[in-house]
Design a protein that fits this description.
The complex is a heterodimer of chains A (275) and B (265). Chain A has twelve helices and no strands. Chain A has 275 residues and is mainly alpha-helical. Chain B is an alpha/beta fold and 265 residues long. Chain B has one domain: P-loop containing nucleotide triphosphate hydrolases (Rossmann fold). In chain B, helix 5 runs parallel beside helix 6 and helix 8 packs across helix 9. The chains are: A mainly alpha (275), B alpha/beta (265).
């Protein structure tokens, strides 16, 4: 039922490079938006630092004395330091979705969705900004590791690898969180689900003990758990003598695949949050 | 030329028909008021036209673009100030504008000047560097209108622009809306409960009730239509919506309205 004056011709593929560039640019505008908020309110980052500090300074020191886990030549605190960084990235990312619900209640989401910004760029931008928060966590973990004498790997390439790992990990956990938020739509339900998700992900991973000590059924679960691959990559890159169990190629392959799939789903469900 | 056209828009949520057979045509430069009790379907109409939700059936066109099939072009042509607060309280007024400018691809070379002009136009230059969470309700609304106008949309949607504002702040918002019309010839669709607001701002008014348009015309035409002597727009409203002024709007609507009012007030 096209009427005169109505524009109907489809958009061609000729301007694909421009579209890709536009997509990247818009993604980083969202990263900028979220980062500017953090700069105005850095207290959030400090309060988030308490939890990894407790794990490393108390749990790590106590369990380390037991020598309960076969961590090879590596002492226990060194073994768990990458695990705790992965855990704190998981924790800040998995509750990231609640910000989407806050912004929905405020009307900020409406504003973003009415702008000519690709939906997945909105989601990816938010996901990457969770990575910015993750890097702040890494700084805290590195400082504690220095203070407690953990032998860190200071090779610049390794540190770059750690940063990359954190950004990817934060991206897919936060996107997962945003998807859940967009599906359940209320803060109360979301908080419940967030609590239920974090602990199984954490305990069914190699973050604070090697997979080899797990019962066989849990070993299977841990190999499906994306956190395992995050920890595996971090352990290889962060500490001296660290080794990857699966190989960095596989770690990154799995993490990136998760990210792409989740961002695509996220782009589909994000507009639902205002409906 | 008609900037906005709709053909029998219908939106159903389950068994509830929120918008029923909504057909209008709006000329460039007009200010169009959508009036009606809570739950009449005003915000749903806006959400359909701003591409936030698809209609169940029917079509809508803005500047000739279909709001469903050509949503991204529609988004370039419209500005939208939601009933809720859309400015980010954790950023300064300037930063809010800056992010919007970048999302709408304003050229970097002239961007800063445009943002300064926009702040100046809305009387917010002094507060530009202040976090928006310390703004008053009226300042937030003016900032939001500035944000929504940065890319010079041909059509602006204002969903209850003065909800929760005190009379002084309300008057200031009105003045700015009138200036938008005179300075940029922007076509505006706004929803309101306030008859005074509709009378001051709107060239054309439609009254909605239970999802349907029950009356449409200029304020004077509507007054004439009800046939009583010296009617006010309030009389018109009551005439067309009956005793239902308080019947619409569920718990969620009420909670949202009060929340917005509290934040702005």
């Amino acid at each position: 039922m096209t009427q005169p004056g109505h524009v109907e011709q489809p958009v061609g593929l000729a301007n694909l490079p421009g579209a890709v560039l536009n997509y990247i640019r818009k993604t980083f505008v969202i990263v900028e938006l979220e980062t500017r908020k953090l700069v105005h309110d850095p207290i959030i980052l400090l309060t988030r630092a308490v939890q990894p500090a407790l794990w490393l300074l108390i749990f790590g020191q106590v369990i380390g004395r037991l020598r309960a886990f076969p961590t090879g030549e590596m002492d226990y605190v060194t073994f768990m330091t990458p695990g705790i960084l992965a855990q704190s990235v998981l924790f800040i990312s998995i509750f990231f979705g609640i910000s989407v619900l806050w912004e929905r209640d405020l009307g900020i989401t409406h504003k973003l969705l009415v702008s000519p910004t690709p939906r997945t760029a909105l989601v990816l931008g938010k996901a990457l900004s969770a990575g910015v928060r993750g890097i702040a966590q890494a700084v805290v973990v590195y400082i504690i590791a220095l203070l407690t004498g953990v032998k860190m790997n200071w090779n610049p390439m390794a540190i770059l690898g750690v940063i990359t790992t954190i950004i990817i990990a934060a991206s897919f956990f936060s996107t997962f969180s945003m998807i859940i938020a967009c599906l359940v739509k209320t803060r109360e339900r979301f908080m419940g689900i967030g609590q239920v998700m974090t602990m199984p992900l954490f305990f069914a991973s190699n973050a604070i003990y090697p997979i080899s000590v797990m019962p066989s059924w849990l070993q299977v679960v841990s190999k499906v758990n994306p956190l395992t691959y995050v920890v595996d990559a971090l352990r290889a890159l962060m500490v001296q003598g660290g080794e990857s169990m699966f190989g960095l190629g596989m770690d990154y392959g799995i993490m990136l695949a998760w990210t792409v799939v989740l961002v695509l789903i996220g782009g589909r469900v994000y507009p639902n949050v205002v409906r | 030329m008609a900037i906005l056209e709709t053909e029998s828009l219908v939106k159903r949520f389950g068994s509830l028909t929120a918008v029923d057979d909504f057909t209008i045509s709006l000329e460039t430069g007009n200010v169009f008021g959508l009036l009606g009790p809570n739950g009449a379907g005003k915000s749903t109409v806006i959400k359909i036209l701003t591409t936030l939700i698809p209609p169940t059936s029917g079509r809508g066109f803005i500047a000739g673009y279909d709001v469903v099939r050509r949503a991204s072009e529609v988004r370039r042509h419209i500005g939208y100030v939601p009933q809720l607060i859309s400015a980010d309280g954790h950023l300064t007024g300037y930063e809010n504008l800056l992010i919007t400018a970048k999302l709408y691809d304003l050229p970097a070379g002239t961007r800063d000047q445009e943002l300064r002009d926009a702040l100046d136009f809305m009387g917010l230059s002094d507060a530009a560097g202040k976090l928006v969470r310390y703004y008053s309700g009226g300042m937030i609304r003016r900032l939001e209108i500035a944000q929504s106008m940065l890319h010079r949309p041909s059509m602006l949607f204002l969903d209850e622009p003065t909800i929760g504002l005190d009379p002084l702040a309300r008057k200031m918002v009105w003045e700015h809306v009138q200036q938008l019309k005179s300075k940029y010839n922007t076509t505006i669709l706004l929803t309101t409960h306030l008859m005074e607001e509709a009378e001051r701002l709107c060239d054309l008014i439609a009254i909605m009730h239970l999802g349907k348009v029950v009356a449409i015309g200029t304020p004077d035409e509507l007054k004439t239509a009800i046939g009583t002597e010296n009617p006010t727009l309030d009389d018109v409203f009551i005439h067309f919506t009956g005793d239902s002024l308080e019947s619409g709007g569920g718990y969620r609507d009420t909670a949202r309205t009060r929340r917005t009012a509290r934040r702005l007030g």
